[in-house]
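Deliverable D5.2: sample structural annotation.
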Amino acid sequence: MLKLHDVIKTYDGKSQVTALAGINLTIGAGEMVAIMGPSGSGKSTLLNLMGGLDVPTSGQVMVAGEDLARESEKGRSLFRRSKVSYIFQAYHLMPTLKVSQNVALPLHLAGVPAGEINRKVAQVLKEVGLEARSGHLPDELSGGERQRVAIARALVTGAPLLLADEPTGNLDTARGEEILNLLRTIHRERGTTIVMVTHDHHAASACDRLIKLRDGKVEGDSVQAGGGK
């Protein structure tokens, strides 16, 4: 699903900053992987490259058979519509749109017919347990419910790769556990490849594999016993 070869990412400013310093990494289809590391280790930069939100300074970023490092901005945008979905710590829901409308947004952008949109939205809202909340606005929901809406929006396109950036970071322990259980269910039942950046060791333990970054390099890469169970 993902293969990064000699990936370097630098940012120019008053001084050059190296965010990633030669990443070599392979993640297979259907894996559930956690990425951890201290602030400034390159976690978010790596996630952005995997999703085509940014391109490396040098190196190869292969995702679902396409080298995103060589794609134009338009090409990467089209790629993201069908191959990649995102979950963010801050949910990023449209406050003036109802739950069902927020979930439907990526399908409207892709030009999916209205009847198919309604069917798919109803299906994923049932999957995340929010059928009864479809007509509510985000401000009428709890934090855990908002994150479930964000997950439903990520699932509705059927993208094979799900990138999650601190998905439990804004939630209390109980609500965070609910989201982790939901992600594990999605991984098991859909076979979705999930890559999750987190500072939370408990959240990371939900995954089958743990990749540790430090100073823009892979410091550790291990299979976790009992991960994803």
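Annotation notes: The domain at 30-53+81-223 is CATH 3.40.50.300 (Rossmann fold). The mean pLDDT is 91.
The annotation will be released with the project's public dataset once the embargo ends.
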